[in-house]
């Protein structure tokens, strides 16, 4: 009888040891699966970056970087008077007060801008007053606004072009 009790205890210990071993194996397999899955996801998600890094950059992007890096090559600056316009708003009256400076590509362009100043100011007022607060509140929105102003003014000019538009004052109320 004592021997039977010992055999039962040994069998129970083997069962407990076997279930612990099985639990450890399952945990190890899950960890290996998570690591392999993480590595696969990493390589799949980062694979596109390597292709983009190996491709040559577009010429326009390279030119923009050169302009920003070399601030000594800034063209003549043409300051405009202050603009105060109403913004598009559904629930309240909001307005924008801003001051804009234009960077010209050559000193000769200043004469043409002087002659076309009323048309340029009108164009800028129409662009500014067509915007909502949400469109121009973020830095990205301001950059889009600058690009739109630059593009539209350059359509009016014949002897040169506007290189850059600078906001020297920008208040939304």
TrEMBL record:
Top-level taxon in the UniProt lineage: Bacteria
Pfam families: FliL (PF03748)
Keywords per UniProt: Cell membrane, Cell projection, Chemotaxis, Cilium, Flagellar rotation, Flagellum, Membrane, Transmembrane, Transmembrane helix
InterPro entries recorded: FliL
Entry GO terms, CC: bacterial-type flagellum basal body; plasma membrane
Transmembrane segments: 21-45
Membrane association type: Single-pass membrane protein
Main location group: membrane
Gene Ontology BP terms: bacterial-type flagellum-dependent swarming motility; chemotaxis
Location(s) in or outside the cell: Cell membrane
Function in brief: Controls the rotational direction of flagella during chemotaxis.
Protein family membership: Belongs to the FliL family.
Protein name: Flagellar protein FliL
């Amino acid at each position: 009888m004592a021997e039977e009790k010992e055999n039962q205890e040994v069998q129970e210990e083997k069962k407990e040891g076997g279930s612990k071993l099985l639990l450890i194996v399952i945990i190890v397999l899950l960890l290996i699966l998570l690591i392999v899955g993480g590595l696969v996801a990493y390589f799949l998600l980062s694979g596109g970056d390597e292709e983009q890094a190996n491709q040559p950059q577009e010429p326009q992007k390279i030119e923009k970087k050169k302009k920003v890096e070399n601030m000594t090559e800034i063209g003549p600056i043409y300051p405009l008077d202050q603009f105060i316009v109403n913004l598009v708003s559904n629930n309240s009256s909001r307005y924008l007060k801003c001051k804009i400076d234009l960077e010209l590509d050559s000193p000769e362009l200043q004469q043409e801008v002087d002659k076309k100043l009323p048309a340029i100011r009108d164009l800028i007022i129409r662009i500014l007053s067509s915007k909502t607060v949400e469109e121009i509140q973020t830095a990205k929105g301001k950059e889009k606004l600058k690009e739109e102003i630059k593009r539209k003014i350059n359509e009016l000019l014949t002897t040169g072009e506007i290189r850059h538009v600078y906001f020297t004052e920008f208040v939304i109320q």
